[in-house]
Every structure is written in C-alpha cells, then in structure tokens.
Amino acid sequence: MHADNVVKVLFFGDLVGIPGRALMRSHLGALKAKYKADLIIVNGENAAKNGRGLTPRVAEQLYQDGVDCITTGNHVFQKKELFDFLSSSKNIVRPLNYPTGCPGTGCAFIPIPGLGKPLAVLNLQGRVFMRELLLCPFKTLETVLTFVSTKTNCIFVDFHAEASSEKVGLGLYFDGRVSCIAGTHTHIQTADNRILANGTAYITDAGMCGALNGMLGMKKEPILSMMLSQMPHKFVVEVEPPFCINGICVTIDSSSGQACSIERIHEVFDNVSFDERDFPE
Ligand SMILES: [Fe+2]
Ligand SMILES: [Fe+2]
Predict the structure, then answer these.
(1) 8 CA to middle of ligand 2, Å?
(2) Which residues 6+ apart lie within 8 Å of 247 measured at CB?
(3) Closest to 123 in 3D by CA, of 93, 88, 86, 84
(4) Catalytically annotated residues
(5) What is the SS3 assignment for 47?
C-alpha cells in the first residue's frame, strides 16, 4: 500500500496451458516490482495443461507463484475436480451470472496490503454470441453491487465476453460505480484502455498469456482446418515460442474508489524455458 492511498493492481488475461503458467512463474516477480503492484489477478479459465478449464493443483500453483486472485469464464466447469475447490477457496471466482446452485461464487474480497478494506473481484460472463440463457450480466452486477459497496469502494470486474458491444455497454452502464472493468475471452488485446467519464478504468479485452503465433494460444493448424473444412478438430495448446504476456496495470484511488490510470501491458519473449514435468495438468 502506498502512502498516497493509491492501490495498484496487475491483471493478466487468460493464461493458456503450461506456457501461460510458465510465463507467470518466470516473469511475475519482475512485473510486480516494475509496476510496484499491490495485488495480482489472472484469468485462469484456460490454465489447465490442455487449455480447457483449470484444476485445484493448477490454481494452488498459481497462488504459490504470486497470484492473489483467479478469475474464470465459460470454461470454468470444464474439470469436475474444480467444483469443490471453487466453493472452498476464497481467492477464485466464476461468472456471477450462472444460476444459483452452481459451484463457487462470483465475488471475492481480497485483502489489500496495508489498507483496512479489501479489493472486491467480480467475474461476469457475456451473453452475446455466448450462452444466451445466463442471467443478465447488467442486472446481476447491479444487484450484487448493493452488497459489495457496503464492504469496499475498490471494485474490479472481469467481464468475460465475446462481443465488444456488450463489453462497452457494461463499461458505460457501470461507469463510476466500480473501479475497473476489464474484458477477457477473445484473447486479443484491444487498445481502447481509458478512464471513462465517471472514473471507471476500462478495456474491452486484456488479451492472453501464452504462445504468440498460435490462435488463442492454441496451435493454429487444427483451428484453420476446422475453419476450412467445417469438421470438428481437437484444439492443442501451442508450446513453441515466441510467447506473450498481455494484461493491464490499474491504479485505484482507495479514498474515492475511482481509477487514476489504466496502462496496457504487452510483452513478447523470444523464449521461456520450462519443463512440463514441473507443472501439474
Ligand atoms: Fe479464454
Ligand atoms: Fe472464454
């Protein structure tokens, strides 16, 4: 916590497979120091070895490597072994707008070092070009904020959605009522990071962490074959270099809850050496 009451949060978009986690292990410490970050959040919905969902062992490893909170998305229920963990771990969230009774919660309160209030981390999933039957993300967030804002004014939202229209809409609708709305799911970083008129930091998509020359961090060949043939293909995580880390650094004035800045992070690495045996599936 800094003397000027400013909280710095690093957020990294979807970590894809072991390369995404290896990038965090090798570079998180330096990034945290470079940005003087207080808290680190990552989207872990693709962090499993095969790029689909994540497991308790993967989540625990991310915590050990310095991650304070994990957000997810449409792949959150891919691995059954995560269900109990979603309910028992206080540092992982799934989209709020799944029906009541789904494992886990959509809101986590992460202590901010040196400050008497937490950062609320919320996760929502879009409905446009995605699961249309989820609860309305706008109304869901509206309802939950009445509770969350009694606990803290430092509020971070990962809006996991496909359509930029839906993401921009949520940003503008909640401008001034949350500290930051960062999009995920497309794995493509957008260059529209800015502070909205009423003080909410916004970016349509933070991008992903993984192999740069694949598609979504997966090998391009099966995806291209699928596009050309319209036949189903198995997606495989790309493990060849180069790699990239995509995310944002957000500064929040903890007295007002408004954002002071939102900076994009896009770093490319020619190589990251890792042994797959050091990383759980
Ligand atoms: Fe993803
Ligand atoms: Fe996704």
Answers:
(1) 25
(2) 10, 11, 12, 13, 206, 207, 209, 264, 265
(3) 93
(4) 75
(5) coil
How much is the pLDDT for 135? Answer: 97
Which ligand approaches the C-alpha of residue 161 most closely?
2
For residues 219 and 222, give the distance between their C-alpha atoms in angstroms, rounded to a whole number: 7
Whether 3 shows a pLDDT value over 70: the answer reads no
Residue 112 CA to ligand 2 centre (angstroms) = 27
Q: Compute, in angstroms, the gap from residue 114 CA to the centroid of ligand 2.
A: 33
Ligand index nearest the alpha carbon of residue 44: 1
Q: Using CA atoms, how far apart are residues 215 and 80, in angstroms rounded to an integer?
A: 26
Domain boundaries, the chain: 6-268
Strand-pairing partners, residue 215, are 218
Average pLDDT, the chain: 96
Containing H/E element for 57? helix 56-64
| Class of the CATH domain delimited by 6-268 | alpha beta
Q: What is the pTM of this model?
A: 0.97
**What separation in Å is there between the alpha carbon of 185 and the centre of ligand 1?**
4
Residue range 129-145, pLDDT digits in tens: 998 999 999 999 999 99
In angstroms, the CA 75 to CA 58 distance is 14
Q: Has residue 1 got a pLDDT over 60?
A: no
* Cα 161 to middle of ligand 2, angstroms: 7
Q: Say whether pLDDT at 154 is over 80.
A: yes
